[in-house]
Design goal:
Helices cover about 45% and strands about 20% of the residues. The protein has five helices and five strands. The radius of gyration is 13 Å and the shape is globular. Keywords: Phosphoprotein.
Length: about 130
């Protein structure tokens, strides 16, 4: 059975690209913003990993991830931020919560897959 990844991004081309490069290995759920993504989680869904854009309308990536991380139910879901923000490293280091990885857009698909595998391995080994 494939593991489920929740991908949150308002850019349709990024959603299509991520679905294309990841759907052979994972079940992909795509949401256009943090509101849709959090609603999906609240419906009882639990992905193995969240990939979220940082800059989105209607509940941006930082607000979405903050709400995931302060939640008792979802805080252990690993998160990878994917963003074109020129100061992504600075923004991530200033966040009051931990993200498991962050990757700049445009991204190398192989590097993204490697990051996903590493984050999932760390998560699995910490839950043994």
């Amino acid at each position: 059975m494939k593991r489920t990844l929740l991908i949150v991004d308002d850019d349709l081309s990024i959603l299509k690209l991520l679905n294309f490069i990841l759907s052979k290995e994972y079940d992909i759920v795509v949401k256009n913003n943090g509101i849709e993504a959090f609603s999906w989680l609240e419906d009882g869904n639990m992905p193995e990993l969240i990939i979220s854009d940082l800059q989105m309308p209607y509940f941006d990536g930082q607000s979405f991830v903050k709400n995931v991380k302060i939640s008792g139910f979802y805080r252990d879901i690993p998160v990878i931020l994917l963003s074109a923000a020129h100061d992504l490293d600075t923004q991530v280091s200033a966040m009051p919560f931990k993200v498991d990885a962050h990757i700049h857009k445009p991204f190398n698909p192989t590097a993204l897959k490697t990051a996903i595998n590493q984050v999932l391995q760390v998560y699995e080994s910490s839950n043994i």
